[in-house]
Specification:
This protein is mostly helical. It has helices spanning 10-27, 37-57, 73-100, 105-123, 127-145, 152-183, 188-193, 199-220, 228-235, 238-262, 268-291, 296-315, 319-346, 363-366, 368-382, 388-402, 406-432, 446-464, 467-478; strands at residues 64-65, 69-70. It contains 19 helices and two strands. The radius of gyration is 21 Å and the shape is globular.
Length: 480
């Protein structure tokens, strides 16, 4: 134990300690007082981000924790992204929680513990550590989804998320058991080295790989494992929905890259066609489902399903192209979803928030800054040029074409055209319709305004100057 290198776990340890500190602050605050939960959470996440920067530039880079966790370029890139998502979620949360009457310290503690799981998920080098990180992330999210105990929809979303999460965990564990039976190890490098030991082993290896794919499919909400997403996204508090859309997708796709291109690359000929089919179905059904929605949160939920399909499109490419394209896309995708759901949260007031399309009619006249920000995010989700969404989709489809999946890229382009209808419909309502009824929604406070401004800057900055982020993504993908 004296030679154990704890540096790869330092960011997660800082966030976990902050979560415990938030709980203690809540416990020792006088009745009727207010614990500084948001401020403590923000400080802890910033310190963890500084630790990541230190590891990236110091001697801790590339170190491993007993072969279970890595502090390589890949994990550090995703650590920085996940911590950035957490910081923006904390900035969005105080005003929203006050508006819905749920300003309780356990919210921030659960958020931090979920981030601990995400950090472990993207840095795990073996499957048991990965599963533990997956459960740490998921259990916290189950509680967050049901935070609003006064609403049936919130409780329903928590129960549905828990049940589907249990199914996904079972599939994942069966896959781990099969891979362990074939290779004698849960270490990804050893599993990769054991590939091709015979036809019986190859069959069990592919069956185990398929089980892992099903488990991950639930987490990223790919078709046909997506049915939980619309109900959970709609029923959960909006800031939690933003966190799930951005953070869970980032962590899950990071783990997918690590497992499939880090450990199972030798059997890519077997799982790439399955991924291609899942990608096509997910893009098509996600976009068609979004067309039929009248609730904006459900529309964005189906949009999230469609974007999982876009990301799966790149995973069928070669290792370097897949890693680079997915990591780059996740940066813009996280900013867009945090911004889109963040606008909904910023408008919440007295327990009410905009949910139907009609609520956005004439928003540009009443809240011009928020309407402009939401327009930027929706345009980016559509994939219009000079936005992160356009550049990100270009690299995703480019990776698929370079690897011979031209038809898959064509499906992606066509579905992006279809998505313009439901994204730009909201923009038309905001700018080309008169306001309806009384003005019942709130203006953005300082924290929400800062988070939305940062998200918009990232979306436009990455769209206009993609080079720096693309270079970092290329370096990170190279360490897979």
């Amino acid at each position: 134990m004296s030679g154990l290198d704890l540096r790869p776990a330092l960011p997660a340890l800082v966030v976990a300690a902050t979560g415990v500190l938030v709980l203690l602050a809540q416990a020792f605050t006088r009745k009727g007082g207010k614990a500084p939960a948001a401020a403590l959470s923000l400080a802890g996440l910033v310190v963890a981000l500084l630790v990541v920067a230190r590891l990236a530039s110091g001697p801790g880079r590339g170190s491993t924790l007993g072969g279970s966790l890595a502090a390589d370029d890949f994990s550090l890139f995703l650590h920085a992204l996940i911590l950035g998502i957490g910081i923006l979620c904390v900035l969005l949360s105080p005003s929203y929680l006050r508006a819905i009457g749920a300003d309780r310290g356990e919210y921030y503690a659960l958020l931090l513990f979920s981030i601990v799981g995400m950090l472990g998920l993207v840095s795990s080098l073996e499957l048991i550590s990965l599963f533990v990180a997956l459960e740490i992330m998921s259990v916290s999210l189950y509680a967050l989804a049901g935070l609003r105990r006064d609403r049936v929809e919130s409780q329903e979303s928590a129960v549905k998320y828990f049940i589907t999460g249990a199914f996904s965990s079972a599939f994942f564990l069966y896959g781990v058991a099969l891979l362990y039976g074939v290779s004698g190890s849960t270490d990804l490098a050893r599993i990769g080295a054991s590939l091709g030991r015979g036809p019986a082993s190859a069959s069990l290896m592919m069956l185990g790989t398929g089980m892992l794919l099903v488990g991950f499919g639930f987490k990223v909400a790919s078709v046909p494992f997506h049915m939980w997403a619309p109900d959970v996204y709609q029923g959960a508090p909006t800031t939690v929905t933003a966190f799930m859309a951005a953070g869970v997708k980032t962590a899950a796709f990071g783990a997918l890259l690590r497992v499939f291109w880090g450990g199972l690359a030798g059997s890519a000929h077997g799982w790439q066609p399955a991924l291609a089919v899942l990608a096509a179905l997910t893009m098509i059904l996600g976009n068609l489902g979004a067309l039929a929605q009248t609730n904006v949160k459900r529309m964005l939920a189906y949009s999230s399903i469609a974007h999982a399909g876009y990301l799966l499109t790149a995973l069928v490419a070669t290792r370097a192209l897949a890693g680079e394209a997915v990591l780059f896309y996740l940066v813009g995708y996280a900013a867009v979803n945090l911004g889109g759901f963040g606008v909904l949260a910023a408008l919440a007031k007295d327990g009410r928030e905009p949910v139907s399309f009609d609520d956005f009619a004439g928003l540009s006249a009443r809240r011009p800054a928020l309407a402009a920000a939401l327009a930027v995010f929706l345009v980016s989700l559509t994939g219009v040029p000079v936005s992160a969404g356009f550049v990100g989709k270009f690299y995703l489809f480019y990776a698929a074409v370079r690897s011979g999946y031209v038809a898959l890229a064509i499906v992606g382009v066509l579905m992006s055209v279809v998505s313009a209808y439901y994204y730009l419909r909201v923009v038309v309502l905001m700018y080309m319709h008169e306001p309806q009824g009384e003005d019942v929604f709130a203006p953005a406070d300082a924290g929400s305004g800062l988070a939305l401004a940062v998200s918009a800057i990232v979306v436009l900055g990455v769209g206009v100057f993609p080079g720096p982020v693309l270079a970092l993504a290329r370096i990170a993908a190279g360490s897979l």
